[in-house]
Amino acid sequence: MTTSTAPVTTTGDPVLEATGVIMRFGGLTAVNNVDLTVNSGEIVGLIGPNGAGKTTFFNCLTGLYVPTEGTVKYKGTVLPPKPHLVTQAGIARTFQNIRLFANMTVLENVLVGRHSRTKEGLLSAVLRGPKYKRAEAESREKAMGLLEFAGLADKADHLARNLPYGEQRKLEIARALASEPGLLLLDEPTAGMNPQETRAAEELVFAIRDRGIAILVIEHDMRFIFNLCDRTAVLVQGQKIVEGDRETVQSDERVITAYLGAPLEGTAEAPAAADADADAIADAPADLPAEAAADPVEEADAEPAAEASTASATSTTGTEDEK
Length: 323
Hints:
The chain is an alpha/beta fold.
């Protein structure tokens, strides 16, 4: 599969640089030699049909999978293949399926996200000295600020499982932001949302970008992606086939084929074959007997029938002669 990348304008220094990323599972290549760069201040989309390798690529970026080949850099430094170290480096993510702590409150869920930015250890937590209390108060203040930012401050004491679906998505984003990332990876943030919730999610993503956080987002909602993203990359069967702005992606024939499929082989040839048969019949000599124009299949069927009829008549005659 040939790949091509349209020229794009960069808005800042590279935040994420993925080079030659390959992920194999035995004999299956789920991600095949993918290059992708996200610059500071950018919102980049990653689209493709189901099974294209988008979430697998996300897992390679965040340390859940160790790529078979290739490198992933964050602000020029190669990332260690450990999720907690990737988070400490400055990359946070959400998941395709919501992964909240259902029996914890909304505030507690966001406080969990602060873990990588706190320095208090087990002994400090047990003794609960002044330093620990200051750190805890600071974390609560920042967590409440994120809930206010996401529009969930009035539900800080609610259990996460009791939130409506759209607000659970917002809470997951707020928890990711609690780790103070420089790059946020969103995996289908509007999946299952109604149009109003999708619009609210779009505004939230823009607001996150305005805070100086670069964003890489996977989504199947094309309107959401093209309204949101500065540029978009398309994965098909693990390969990046095109990257560019809205017009570049929408007009690419390979993208159209990937989503809508290619014409079935032979469908364009069938009418031509029918026309050829019609021409052959029309060109047949006029003085041929009528039987010559008959369908060979019909003739073949007629011959056994005639033989059977003759045999039946002979048998009947023989019987009458014996009588």
